[in-house]
UniProtKB/TrEMBL annotation:
SUPFAM superfamilies named in the record: UDP-Glycosyltransferase/glycogen phosphorylase (SSF53756)
Pfam families xrefs: Glyco_transf_4 (PF13439), Glycos_transf_1 (PF00534)
Descriptive protein name: Glycosyltransferase involved in cell wall bisynthesis
Residues in Glycosyltransferase subfamily 4-like N-terminal domain copies: 13-150
Organism expressing this protein natively: Alicyclobacillus hesperidum
Keywords for the protein's UniProt record, in alphabetical order: Transferase
CDD domains: GT4_PimA-like
Gene3D superfamilies per record: Glycogen Phosphorylase B
Domain Glycosyl transferase family, first and last residues per copy: 179-337
GO molecular-function terms, A-Z: glycosyltransferase activity
């Protein structure tokens, strides 16, 4: 059985982490044609989550050269035929390790590389260019939504759906709202809109906070789950706009069920997205979605059939869409029903596993055709140049 090395950052907590965790959990129960070895750079929430799946996990540490050396050693020990990385920094490290061992390398692109370092002037100028230059060396690239392939310097683009696997809620939506009313010491008349995201400029959370000031219903409060370098700036903005008492920064939450279960409306006003799991999770737990009109969200919300779409950065349009949903329970319920029936089935972990294995077959056939490897039935080793 051919071995794939999957390389990721152990401290990842964003959408890529949800993607990897769902994938690893699915692999633990599925029959596959490939053998997977997960390699974590350092420790952290994602490394711990993958350890709990019972799969093979190795942790590596150290600086740039030490990590490349460790990856190369694992490739040799496992006689791996493919290295598969996730995340800009991991992709750069993987490119060097794969070149050293002369094996194919691929990566999953979870978001637009041009937006990966917004808010850091020097990094945003240098790192996207460096990342894209290394991606040219990939044998092929997986994307979580097709339009990402348009900006990638690689001929072989393979689509893989993001996925979620969630259990039905343990309590009713009324009980979840009551929980947050109590936690935040709010009257029972309070209704919640919210978002779970890293506090990063690409998420446009300043636009979301500005929209709260334009929603006339004082009983509508915004809950923001997640953390990041923009938190202080966003809190200061809420103070300046006079809406600080209606905006609640909850920090990182280990359980999304209690959060999404309390929301009437989930809002993601991002400048760019891949295939955000937050939209899938919110819809699963019964919140109506509002998203910025970008390719990823347009696709997930079925061009407005499964949620509201608003122009990127348009504060008034966002406020109007949210206000409309809070006033129209039937419309909100309609969006949730369409989302559950037509969207969620497209993002199952079985579809994710199948898409990856189809993609690996394409990459393997390309490698055989170009003479980098020979078929397994003839020889299991790589041909060295």
């Amino acid at each position: 059985m051919r071995t794939v090395i999957v390389f990721f950052a152990g401290n990842e907590v964003g959408g890529a982490a949800s993607h990897l965790r769902t994938w690893a959990e699915g692999l633990a129960e599925a029959r596959t044609q490939y053998q997977y070895r997960f390699v974590s750079l350092g420790d952290g929430p994602l490394a711990s989550a993958l350890e709990r799946t019972g799969g093979s996990l190795t942790k590596v540490t150290g600086g740039f050269r030490a990590v490349i050396d460790a990856l190369a050693q694992i490739i040799r020990q496992e006689r791996a035929w493919l290295l598969h990385s996730h995340g800009p920094r991991m992709n750069i490290l993987a490119a060097y390790a794969a070149k050293r061992q002369q094996i194919p390398w691929t990566a999953t692109i979870h978001s637009n590389p041009l937006y990966d370092f917004l808010g850091h002037p020097l990094k945003s100028f240098l790192f996207p260019k460096l990342h894209l230059w290394h991606l040219r060396q990939a044998s092929g690239l997986f994307v979580v939504q097709p339009t990402l392939g348009d900006i990638l310097p690689c001929k072989t683009i393979l689509e893989v759906p993001n996925a979620i696997f969630l259990t039905p809620p343990a309590r009713s939506r009324h009980e979840y709202r009551a929980f947050w009313h109590n936690q935040l010491r709010l009257p029972t008349s309070t209704r919640f809109m919210g978002v779970a995201a890293r506090l990063d400029p690409v998420k446009n959370l300043d636009v979301l906070i500005q929209s709260v000031a334009k929603i006339p219903d004082p009983d509508v409060h915004l809950c923001i789950a997640g953390d990041g370098r923009e938190r202080a700036t966003l809190e200061a903005l809420a103070d300046r706009l006079g809406v600080r008492e209606r905006i609640h920064f909850l920090g990182f939450l280990a359980s999304v069920e209690e959060f999404y279960g309390a929301l009437d409306v989930h809002v993601l006003p991002s400048k760019s997205e891949g295939a955000p799991t937050s939209v899938l999770e919110a819809g699963f737990y019964g919140a109506a979605n509002v998203g910025s009109d970008i390719p990823a969200l347009r696709r997930m919300l079925l061009d407005g059939e499964a949620g509201e779409m608003v122009p990127v950065g348009d504060v008034q349009a966002l406020a109007s869409a949210v206000h409309r949903l809070f006033r129209d329970d039937a419309l909100r319920d309609h969006y949730v029903q369409v989302f559950r029936e037509q969207v969620l089935p497209l993002y199952s972990r079985d579809r994710m596993i199948a898409a990856y294995e189809r993609g690996y077959t394409v990459l393997e056939e390309d490698a055989v055709r170009t003479g980098k490897i020979v078929p397994l039935e003839n020889r299991t080793e790589w041909l060295r140049e």
